[in-house]
Specification:
Blueprint (H helix, E strand, L loop, with lengths): L2 H11 L3 E7 L5 E5 L3 H18 L11 E6 L2 E7 L4 E6 L5 H18 L1
Antiparallel strand pairs: 1-2, 1-5, 3-4, 4-5
Length: 114
């Protein structure tokens, strides 16, 4: 499954997700859905920086594998896999556990096909 198909499946099965982007291991945009083309790379880069930068605040300096930020107009979620990361923006008041599950499933589907 390619990135476009995986992201399309993600927003279909998880209607609370409005936009999503897949970030390659090098931090570059690997695909997106619902994100204006001019903003997709910015979203991908911001997600990678958040995941990487968050590790500095861990006492063990370990890798951060997921994060959730609540904003006034919705929530931002990011999940890091072994090779890629995924970031999504969802409507307000969503169940974080369900969104994290769907994001992890999407990354697993991509890893299985690699």
């Amino acid at each position: 499954m390619d990135a476009a198909a995986a992201l399309a499946d993600l927003v279909e099965i998880s209607p609370q997700i409005e936009v999503a982007a897949l970030v390659a291991g090098d931090g570059e945009l690997a695909g997106s859905v619902g994100v204006p083309e001019t903003r997709a790379a910015v979203l991908a880069r911001a997600a990678r920086e958040l995941l990487d930068g968050s590790a500095a605040f861990r006492s063990d300096q370990g890798r951060v594998t997921q994060l959730h930020a609540e904003l006034a107009g919705g929530d931002v979620f990011a999940v890091a896999g072994k090779e890629q990361a995924i970031v999504a923006v969802a409507r307000e008041r969503v169940a974080p556990g369900l969104v994290f599950y769907d994001l992890k499933r999407c990354l697993a589907a991509l890893a299985d096909d690699a």
